[in-house]
Amino acid sequence: MNQPVAHLGVIFPGNNESVVWRHPATRSFLELDTYLDFARTAERGGLDFLFLAERLGIRGAAGRVHEHLAAGRVDNLTVLAALARATTHLGLVATLNTTFNDALTLARQLATLDQLSAGRAAWNIVTTETVGSNFSAGNYLAHDERYTRAGEVVDLVRQLWRAAPEAAVRHEGRFQSYAGSPGLGRSRQGEPVLVQAGASADGRAFAARYADVVFTNAGGDIERARAFRADLRRLAGQAGRDPARVLVLPEFGFVVGDTAAEAVEQAAYLTDLKVSPLFARAWLEDMWRRPYPDFDIDGPLPAEEPDYAGGLPADDRFAVRAATTHQQRVTAYRDLAEQQGFTVRQLIAHLKRDSLFAGTPEAIADEIERWVTTGASDGFILSPPVIVDSLTRFVDSVVPRLRARGLLRETYAGSTLRDHLGLPGPTAGTPAD
């Protein structure tokens, strides 16, 4: 079998609430050995790629830093360069933003990683939220403007990648100007794979135009995932692309247990660790857009409605727009809490558990098979909750079952990330479309 039915990547946790700070087995994301062990485990399992996220600022509210967001995280390009030497097949996905970086810097950084890894690099394209104060004044952009700039930057990056090293490249655009020779050599795979995540209309249109891989969060809802993939493929076709070459990989948070009861118990333990009082208060204030310094998070949701119009935070100009409206989400949360008698903290823990796939190795394999064989996804980006143990458990117990069913390759069929994903390489000298 040259190509697997299911494409599996893995994200190194640490950028959002997926890090369980209090779990005794969680290892440091500041030590290189953690990344090395994580990457080698992923490669041992035959996964397509390892994904590192990026956060340029520390989110907070009312002067309080959100404890569930990683502070002082190491630079992902530096880590991935080290992992390029420590692995031989695993794809390496770097997250770099288009709002605060220029095209030439991005082109050179990513082309360098692609050369160092012998054609295994990918760029996760983000427009970046909530970090404008970390940069010079005047760089704030509205949501639509961020995607307009991103399109211009990506077009120029691809033009630089596809030009001969000595070619004269000129670009005069709204956000970027460039005149010079790129001086970049092409890697074994031609150029890095493009990855993108975005649920808004702008995000989906951008992904349909540019992305080889789309990272999405379906929250465990297979029907929602199936509709998203179908819509994205429709948009890709309208953009003149082959829809089959746009891979949709939802996030897959998981807990593997020897028995179903053990998996459920572990999932409850993990989500309880995540939903601390500080986390619950931050979630409530973010959803209700009101300060609640003394609110009892072990009581019911606030009786008043969120401040939908006037409670936008100062940096909401960077907020990511979801497919559903804020009011729709709050209404659904309130209905669920009333039906189940949930406190604020119990509601959040339930939402976290509801998005986890918890079960035996056989049940986890069943779920992956169900999604990829019914058109809900082309695979998943695994999100292991505990570094590195959760990934080790998946590789040792779930991967053999997926291989036995013909869902996952036995060995790597090629050497580049494009080989792993079944994507053709771009032709040298072709213009960015």
UniProtKB/TrEMBL annotation:
Keyword Glycoprotein attributed: no
Keyword Flavoprotein in record: yes
InterPro entries referenced in this protein's UniProt entry, alphabetically: Diverse_substr_monoxygenases, Luciferase-like_dom, Luciferase-like_sf, NTA_MOA
Domain Luciferase-like per the UniProt entry, residue ranges: 31-377
Recorded GO MF terms: monooxygenase activity; oxidoreductase activity, acting on paired donors, with incorporation or reduction of molecular oxygen
Keywords: Flavoprotein, FMN, Monooxygenase, Oxidoreductase
Binding residues annotated for FMN, in chain numbering: 95, 143, 147, 200
Domain of life: Bacteria
Family: Belongs to the NtaA/SnaA/DszA monooxygenase family.
PANTHER family (alphabetical): ALKANESULFONATE MONOOXYGENASE-RELATED (PTHR30011), C2H2 FINGER DOMAIN TRANSCRIPTION FACTOR (EUROFUNG)-RELATED (PTHR30011:SF16)
Protein name, as recorded: NtaA/DmoA family FMN-dependent monooxygenase
